[in-house]
Amino acid sequence: MTFGEALDIPAGVTAVIGSGGKTTLLSVLGRELAAAGRSVLLCTTTKIYPFPDVPLAVSTAELKQVRQKHRLFCAGTPLPGTGKLTAPALPMAALAERFDYVLVEADGAAGHPLKAHAPHEPVIPPEARQVICVAGLTGLGQPIAAAAHRPELYARLAGAGMDEAVTPEIAARVLNGESTGWRYFLNQADTPALLERGQALAALLSGPAAVGSLWKGDIQCL
């Protein structure tokens, strides 16, 4: 089973949010879909670094040129002095008309495996037909203060202390409390112990979930 099949990625716009593997997931999905003969655009509504080995377009003219030569490409507007990209110049609705799939990184987590969302997050485009919320299983067992982006908010949503270790029950409280019809991908199941924790967390979630490892290339629906 491919990641795209397990996560039920439809044609059009899909937003990827959360923490613990968003950028890698976009890359994996993009390569799968492009290998199947589809045109796939990777972009963001927040900030991302360009994808290694993926052609980049920073203008509408470049996007047209790149599309003629490649099935998988990235588009965005450079942020001076950062090396990062923000949203492309073309509106999301226009991009959805031009490409079979538009995969959007719509969140940030500052490298943490878990996160809580501030009121202005995530930045999900209204055109999104699917929202995939990623959570990193390596955060389970760590104190909230170390594992979570926006740890104070995470602790408040979980009803737990900042020094309390994250359990599947705590992570489920946060994810279920924030969810608005999301589909979940519990990443970083790189060991049997992490896979078991992921399965326990998936059983507590209010929406459809898959557990897997982008590093190992494995995914399973639960």
* Shape call: globular
Identify low-pLDDT runs: none
Q: What distance separates the N and C termini?
A: 13 Å
Structural class: alpha/beta
Oligomer: single chain
Number of self-contained structural domains: 1
Largest sheet: 9 strands, mixed
Helical content class: 25-40%
How big is the Rg? 17 Å
CATH architecture verdict = 3-Layer(aba) Sandwich
Cross-sheet strand order for the largest sheet: 3-4-2-7-1-9-11-12-13
- The CATH topology is Rossmann fold
Strand content: 25-35%
Give the helix/strand layout:
Layout: H1 3-6, E1 12-18, H2 22-35, E2 40-44, E3 56-57, H3 60-69, E4 72-75, E5 77-79, E6 84-86, H4 92-98, E7 101-105, E8 114-115, E9 128-136, H5 144-147, E10 148-149, H6 151-158, H7 168-178, E11 183-187, H8 192-202, E12 209-213, E13 218-221
Parallel strand pairs: 1-7, 1-9, 2-4, 2-7, 3-4, 8-10, 9-11, 11-12
Antiparallel strand pairs: 5-6, 12-13
Structure notes:
With 222 residues, the protein is of the alpha/beta class. It has one domain (3-221): 3-Layer(aba) Sandwich (Rossmann fold). Helices cover 31% and strands 25% of the residues. The protein has helices at residues 3-6, 22-35, 60-69, 92-98, 144-147, 151-158, 168-178, 192-202, and strands spanning 12-18, 40-44, 56-57, 72-75, 77-79, 84-86, 101-105, 114-115, 128-136, 148-149, 183-187, 209-213, 218-221. It has a nine-stranded mixed beta sheet with strand order 3-4-2-7-1-9-11-12-13, sandwiched between helices. A two-stranded antiparallel sheet has the order 5-6. Helix 7 packs across helix 8. The longest helix is centred in the N-terminal third of the chain and has 14 residues, at 22-35. It is globular. The mean pLDDT is 95.
